[in-house]
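quick one before i forget lol
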Amino acid sequence: MQQSFSSLLLHTSILRALSDEGYDTPTPIQQKAIPDVLSGKDLIAVAQTGTGKTAAFSLPILHRLQAQEARGRRRIRALILTPTRELALQIDESLSTYGRHLPLRSAVILGGVPAGKQIKAVRQHPDVLVATPGRLLDLYNQGHINLDQIEVLVFDEADRMLDMGFLPDVKKIVSHLPTKRQTLLFSATMSSDIARLARQMQNDPVKVDVTPKVSVPTKIAQQVLFVEKNNKRALLSDILKDKGVLRALVFTRTKHLANRLMKHLLRQGITADAIHSNKTQSARQKALSAFHRGHIKVLVGTDIIARGIDVDGVSHVINYELPHEPESYVHRIGRTARAGTEGTAMSFCDAEEVGLLKGIERLTRVPLTTVENHPFRSSEIAELRQSGKAVGKPVQHRRNGRSAPSSRKGSSNAVQEKPRSDNTPKFGRRSRTVR
C-alpha cells in the first residue's frame, strides 16, 4: 500500500508546503527514514543522490523544531554538515521550500566566499544551520557560533565527507556538541569507515538501506566507444554537435583537462563551461545557473563534482576519461535519466583504459554496449576488451593520491538558483524539485 505524506503525521504547515509543490507520495527513503527520525532515534541511511534523501531528514527536523519551542533565547538547534558548498546551498533551498509556512529560520555557512554576511546571518539566531566543516570550525573558533543547544546533527553524504579528508574537522565539531542529541548519518555507501564513524558518533542507530549493491538507473543507455587517445577530442566535438544531444555533462580526471576541453569546445562553436574545485564559488554558481537555464549546452567537470551536479534534463553523460574507481562511474552516469526520464551515458575508452572498463563492468554486472559506427572507432582497442591483454602505459590508480580540500573550501553540488544576496536566515524561497 502506497503511503502519503499525511500518513507520516508531519506538521500541517509542512504538508501544505509539500502540497504547494505537488508532492503527495514519499519516496522509499522518506517512507523508511521519516518515522524513525520523528521518534528521536539515531539513524544510518544508505541512499544515493536523487532518491529524496534531503527531504528524508529535512521534513522531520522541521516538524520537531516546530513542535518543540526553543527554550529561552533562540539558538541553533539543528546542524546539517555537508562536504560541499553547492550541496549546502541545495539543502538550504529545500529547507526554505518545506518550511515556507513555518516561523523558523535557517542559515548556511560555507567556504570560498567572504564570511561577513554569514556571520551576520548567524547573529540572527537561525534554528537550522547548514554548513561545510571547514568554515563552520573557523567561525566557531572565532566565537561567532554557539553549538551548545544542538538537538539534531546530520551528516549528509558522509562517505564523500570522509573521502575529501574532513574527518578531523568533523571530530572537532562534534566535540563541541551536546552528547545528548539525535544523530542522522546519510551515505551513498556503507563502508567500514562509515561504520566506524557511526560507532563513534551515534547511539544504537537504526539502519535504513534503500540502495542496491550497485544502483544504475535502468533507463540509462550505457555505451562504450573505443578510440585512440589522440582522437578523443575530435570524437567529443562530433558527438556534441549532434542535435540529439540536448544537454551534456563531460567528465575528466583532472581540472586542467576540463579547462582545455572547455576551450576546445568553445572554439568549435559549442557553448560550454568548466566546473571544478579550482573555480571560485561565484564562477561555479554562474556556470551551474547557465547550464540549468539552457544558456550553455555542455558542462565539463571532474570526479569531485560527479555527485554534485543535480540538474534535471541532462540527456547525455560523456566519460571523456574513465574514472580510476568504478564507483565513480556509477555516480557520474547517475546525473542523467533522472525523475523517470531516459538518458545516455557514453564512455570513451583508449588502450590504457581497458582495465578500467572491465572494472566498471564487474561492478555494475552490465556489459556496456559497443558503438560500432562512430568515425574514430579503434578495432584494435575493441579487441583488447575481449583478449584481456594490456597495451601501452598502464593507468596509475590514485586511490590515496587525491588531495584533501583546504578547511575553507568545499567542492560542489548543484544549485538551481543563485544564493540569496542578503544571506538573511529565513524560509520561504521556492525550489523546483523535491530533494
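fyi The radius of gyration is 22 Å.
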